[in-house]
Specification:
Elements (H helix, E strand, L loop, with lengths): L7 H11 L1 E3 H8 L4 H8 L4 E3 L7 E4 L10 E4 L2 E4 L4 H11 L6 H8 L4 H9 L3 E6 L2 E6 L2 H20 L8 H12 L3 H15 L3 H9 L3 H12 L18 H4 L3
Antiparallel strand pairs: 1-3, 2-3, 4-5, 6-7
Helix pairs in contact: 4-6, 9-10, 9-11, 10-11
Length: 251
């Protein structure tokens, strides 16, 4: 009995109609239960793997509609002309004028990037430097990194020379204070840090005065947000906070 023959044209036609598909979809299209059969046929065509959804979606490169960044969003699935999330992060950071902070890159790519950035720095495919009090990811190439550093430093200097914003209107200040009062300790610190980031240079002091906080507390919230160092299950870190009463009382 002759073995069943599978044709890559079947996959091409299927992907042209569907735009994107999972491995399960492709196996149904080829009437096979074997992943390796699909992979053999994929190697014969120019295809893409999504960098979102753990690479579980496939598409033809010819049907992708990349934007100026080299990215394509179809429904909620993301593809890149550079390939995987790691390769995409390297290219997007290297092509940027000032590098990226982790939250900004996550917004740019539409997926979490913290673990990917740690891997890339460890492998020396990206560099990480502290500029303006915040960690910034820059190109691995020394010349490109130097240019990015200069652009970011110039932008920070320009921001520091900008005219300070006017006083916060009374109704806005009242709304901020009301919202602030509804938060627990961690969320208050993070909210203060977010407002400091929005305010720019000198934001820690401005927010501290508005919310009657210590400027160091505002700085902790700002740095925690910038580093994505947020405790989801606890208001305080283990061991933080005031000592228990019995520990304060003398024996």
């Amino acid at each position: 009995m002759r073995p069943t023959r599978f044709h890559s044209d079947t996959l091409v036609g299927f992907l042209r109609r569907r735009q994107i598909a999972t491995m399960a979809d492709l196996k149904r299209a080829l009437a096979t239960a074997a992943d390796m059969t699909v992979f053999r046929k994929l190697r014969e065509i120019d295809y893409l793997t999504s960098y979102s959804h753990r690479g579980s979606f496939y598409a033809l490169r010819e049907t992708a509609r990349f934007d100026e960044r080299g990215l394509w969003l179809f429904r909620d699935v993301r593809f890149s002309q550079y390939g995987s999330l790691l390769d995409t992060a390297v290219e997007v950071v290297a092509r940027s004028e000032q590098g990226f902070q982790a939250p900004g890159l996550a917004v740019e790519l539409g997926v979490p990037v913290k673990d990917a950035l740690l891997q890339l720095v460890r492998r020396r495919r990206l560099a990480r430097e502290q500029l303006g009090g915040l960690f910034v990811y820059l190109a691995a190439d020394p010349e490109r990194r130097r240019a990015q550093r200069l652009h970011r430093t110039a932008a920070l200097a320009a921001a520091s020379r900008a005219e300070p914003a006017g006083d916060v209107p009374d109704e806005v200040q009242a709304a901020l204070l009301l919202f602030y009062s509804l938060l627990d300790e961690q969320k208050r610190r993070l909210f203060a840090g977010l407002e400091s980031l929005r305010a720019g240079r000198g934001g820690d002091r401005q927010v501290a005065e508005l919310l009657e906080l210590d400027a160091h507390t505002v700085g902790r919230g700002r740095k925690a947000l910038a580093a994505w160092d947020v405790q989801l299950d606890h208001v305080r870190r283990p061991g933080a906070g005031r000592p228990r009463l019995e520990k304060k009382l003398p024996k």
